Amino acid sequence: MQPSGRSGQLARRTVLLGAALAGIVGTRPARAATVPGDLAFAIVRKGERIGTHAVTFRAEASGLAVRHDIDVVVELAFIPVFRFRQEAEDLWRDGRLVAADCDTDDNGARSFVRVRERGSRLLCEGPRGAREAPLGTMTDLSYWNRAIVGQRGVIDLQKGEVEPLALAGGEAETIVVGGRPVATRRWRMNPQGRRGGEVWYDEAGRLVQAVVRTRGEVLEYRLLA
Predict the structure, then answer these.
(1) What is the pTM of this model?
(2) What integer pLDDT is reported at residue 194 of this predicted model?
(3) What is the residue-wise DSSP string for 144-208?
(4) DSSP strand pairing (196-202 vs 207-214)
(5) From the CB of residue 41, how many other CB atoms can be counted at a distance below 10 Å?
(6) DSSP 29
(7) DSSP alpha helix (H) spans, the chain
């Protein structure tokens, strides 16, 4: 079953960032020796918190494991009318994504995407068949890694397809995070596309805030203490 109405529309692309949410020092992709601190973001629509996106990191002998847990519930008159749940785990080695598994429950519609390194390519297997992407391509949950600003495409972990990506800007901007001012750089996502938004990274390269604009909805990602 596919979601319908504005409730379905607002949650369908909450994973654009994963809208994708954690921190790392520097502009290079994470390596096994570098384990960022776990972070979580609240997903907010029209001032109301509708979900969370938590990211946890752990070092393994084979690289850096990154786990994403996204949970969104939309209510109408206190009755849940839409539910989105996504669980994903990535493996990064030598600064590159080499594997990912993602299970998505989009209001009852289930999908699973599997990504594996195959030589100089990434093989993506999903509900629409197999696709290939260049080795070094990130997923749409990789905004925790500031190096994503140099990407020209990302793997959609709900569909298993590569979608175009353009980020522009990098202007200095001071924003309030957790009640205190933070110096950041702001990047605009897909400024010429239908789906867009902004991401803010602090001076350490950590993602501290994001906004997604899609299908007439605005979703905010606010860093939780």
Answers:
(1) 0.82
(2) 63
(3) GSGGGGG-SEEEETTTTEEEE--EEEEEEEEEEETTEEEEEEEEEESTTSSSEEEEEEETTS-EE
(4) antiparallel
(5) 26
(6) P
(7) 5-12
Query: In a 10 Å sphere around its CB, with 0-12 CB exposed, 13-18 middle and 19+ buried, how is residue 96 labelled?
Result: middle
Q: If you count DSSP H runs as helices and E runs as strands, how many of each does the chain have, helices first?
A: 1, 16
Which residues does 61 contact at the CB level (< 8 Å), separation at least 6? none
Give tens-digit pLDDT for 115-131. Answer: 999 999 999 999 999 99
pLDDT in tens, 154-171: 999 999 999 999 999 999
Quick count: other Cβ atoms within 10 Å of Cβ 212? 24
Amino acid in the structure at residue 150: G
Question: Where does 25-154 have alpha helices with state H?
Answer: none
Widest distance between CA atoms in the chain: 52
Give the contacts of 30 (CB within 8 A, at least 6 positions apart): 24, 36, 57, 64, 66, 92, 95, 145
CA dist 148 and 58 (Å) reads 20
Structure tokens at 149: 């600003």
Cα dihedral value 70, 31, 176, 179, nearest 10? 80
Facing residues of 154 across strands? 138, 163
**CA dist 142 to 68, 77, 124, Å?**
10, 34, 16
pLDDT number for residue 192? 65
